Amino acid sequence: MLKLEINQRSWDVPDFQADEMLVWVLRDTLGLTGTRFGCGVGVCGSCNVLINGVPTRSCQTPTADAVGKKIITLEGLAKGTGENIKLHPVQAAFLENPLQCCWCMSGHIMNAVALLEQNPNPNAPQIDSAMNENYCRCGGYNTIRKNVTRAAEIAGGRS
Ligand code: FES
Ligand code: FES
Predict the structure, then answer these.
(1) How far does the centroid of ligand 2 lie from the alpha carbon of residue 19, in Å?
(2) Topology annotation, domain 82-155
(3) Which protein residue has the closest C-alpha to ligand 1 atom 3?
C-alpha cells in the first residue's frame, strides 16, 4: 500500500508495483483519466501533471518518486461541484475555444496553469516557451497560445 497526495487529498494505492509509472496509477488504479497517455516515451507532454507545481511527465515518473509530493491533475483544477462548479481560468478558456481532437489538451492545460502561477500576464514568447515541449498532433498551437492569453484575462477579471 502506498499513499499519494493528489488534488489536495490523500489517496491509498493498493497493489502497488515498484516500477509502475504514475500515469497508470492515476488512470487505471485511481480512475483519474483526465491525465492522458500519448507517446509513452516522455516526448508529447499529454501525460503532464503538476508535481510540487512543476509540469511533469507522468509516463516517465516512477510512482514511488511522487510519494510525499503534491500532485495536481486535471481533476484538481476546478473548485466546487455540480451547479456550483467554478472552472479554473485555463479550463474556462479552453472550453470557450476548444482544440480539435483534444487528446493533448490536458497536458497543455497543466502547463498553462503552472505558467500563470509564475507569470500572471505572459506575452506570446513566454507562452511559447512554456508550452513548446508539449505536442499537438492537430496543429492547434495558435489556438493554444490564444487560450493561454485568454486564461490570463479571465484570471485577472478582464473578461
Ligand atoms: S505520454 Fe508522457 S510524454 Fe507522451
Ligand atoms: S487537438 Fe488533437 S492532438 Fe492537440
Answers:
(1) 29
(2) DNA polymerase; domain 1 (1.10.150)
(3) 42
Architecture of domain 2-76: Roll (3.10)
Phi and psi at residue 5, to the nearest 5°? -100, 110
Give pLDDT, residue 1: 86
pLDDT tens for each residue of 110-146 = 999 999 999 999 999 999 999 999 999 999 999 999 9
Strand partners, 72: 50
Residue 59 CA: nearest ligand 1 atom is 2
Q: Which of 103, 76, 95 is nearest to 147 (CA)?
A: 95
Average pLDDT over residues 23-49: 97
- pLDDT at residue 149 above 90? yes
- Atom number of ligand 2 nearest to Cα 138: 2
Considering the entire predicted model, what is its pTM?
A: 0.95
